Every structure is written in structure tokens, then in C-alpha cells.
């Protein structure tokens, strides 16, 4: 038995003066450096999402202290701040891209009166892919899929996969629900589109009890010092919202 896999969720990593709101979507690079250094020192096993899936399916053992490091939205600051740290330790990373917003400012920030950070260009994405970074889809337009009619949701999901496959010239297998918004119908659309994993913002460790298309994650927040970070790594489940568990990986 083990405690499953902690799929860590980051958004922006960089230098931020203070962060009164939206704290779960920022991580100061100083803290990120310390978090990765301790994962390395304590011999955590940092897995690719393909490896997460294989382990949850029982095709390979789930290592002890297993984590995956994921980044939502594909900010240019990933390249500037997070990537050099990951590279230092040889850690793999999964970055979920918004396929129709590549190279643009993250316009949804403007709705909150916040500055709009830049999302990575196609050139940057290809450069990082060559360097070994994994990329998955985060919708074409970054909209709440569970709020859409099914046909619009289906198109957004299918478009995101097609656009990224054309950008990278390879199969895109992993999906991340924008804002964590999903329900049973949306999960089925993602499965039908050809994705093999989907991650949400539901909190907890990923185990074979979950549908691979609706895996929980652990958000690392601006306020998390090392104690908070390791507390999140250790926890198996936090109180769940509406869990979407449709086809558990482990039967029965
Ligand atoms: Zn997002």
C-alpha cells in the first residue's frame, strides 16, 4: 500500500511583491527553489504524467514519495523561473497550454483588474519540448467547460488537442480542466477526444480509485512555506467538493 501520487499544481512562478488575492495561483521563485531542492534531497520520485498513468493502472509500481509537477496556463515565467530549477534536478514537468492563446497575454486577468502576464509563444513551447518538458491541453479558450452546452464544450476540447498536436507534431495525451470545471459529461468528452488523463483542482492524492480522466491535485500556494508544502505532500485527502469518479482505474 502507499498513499498514491501527489500531483502538484502550480500556475505562475516568479518574483511577486505581495499577493493579497488569488494566492493559490502564484508561487515565489524563492519558495519554488526550496520546494524542489527538498524533493531532491528527500529523494522524491518525480514522475511524468505518462508514468503517473502507468503506475495508477498497475503497469508499474507506484514509487514511495511519488509526485508529479504540473503548471497550468503556460506562462512565459515558467521558462524564466521554474524551468531552470527543474532542470537543475532533472525533474520532469507537465505544462498545460491554452491552445488558442499561445503567445498572447492571459486576458482573463483583466476581468479582475490584474496585469495580464504573457503566455509562452509557439516557438518557446517547441524549444522547451525539445528540452524534454511535457505539454498537455488546458482547453482552446480557457473557459469553464461544465458551464457550456455539450457541443461547444466538445469543440473546445477537440480543438485544443488538434491545435497543440499541430504545434508540436506529436500526440497530446493529457488534459487539464480550466478552473477545474468538469462534470460527468465533460469528462466523457475529454475521454472521447482521445486524452488518457485529466486533472482537476479537486484536492488530494491521485490513486487508482479515481477515474484517470478526473485526477485530483494539490495546489501549492503563495502562502505555503516548507511546512505547508510538506503537509500538502503528506495529506491523502482534503474534504472533497463534488468528486467526479466515473471509471475507477482499479476495477470494482
Ligand atoms: Zn487555467
Protein architecture, described:
The protein has 252 residues and is of the alpha/beta class. The chain has one domain: TIM Barrel, CATH 3.20.20.370. Helix content is 32%, strand content 18%. It is built from 7 helices and 10 strands. The protein is globular. The model has no long low-confidence stretch (mean pLDDT 92). Bound molecules: zinc ion. Zinc ion binds next to strand 5. The site of zinc ion has 5 residues, from strand 5.
Examine the secondary-structure arrangement and name the CATH architecture: Alpha-Beta Barrel
Strand content: 15-25%
Major sheet characteristics: 8 strands, parallel
The CATH homologous superfamily is called Glycoside hydrolase/deacetylase
Question: How many discrete domains?
Answer: 1
N-C termini distance: 17 Å
Which CATH top level class fits?
A: Alpha Beta
Gyration radius over CA: 17 Å
Quick gist of this model?
With 252 residues, this protein is α/β, with parallel strands linked by helices. The protein contains seven helices and ten strands. The two termini are 17 Å apart.
Descriptive tags:
252 residues, TIM Barrel, 8-stranded parallel β-sheet, two-stranded parallel ribbon, 7 helices, 32% helix
Question: What's the topology here?
Answer:
Layout: E1 5-10, E2 12-14, E3 26-28, H1 29-41, E4 45-46, H2 49-56, E5 66-73, H3 76-89, E6 94-97, H4 122-130, E7 134-137, H5 150-168, E8 174-176, H6 184-192, E9 197-203, E10 215-219, H7 226-234
Parallel strand pairs: 1-5, 1-10, 2-3, 4-5, 5-6, 6-7, 8-9, 9-10
Helix pairs in contact: 1-3, 5-6
Bound molecules: zinc ion.
Zinc ion is lined by residues 72-73, 138, 142, 178.
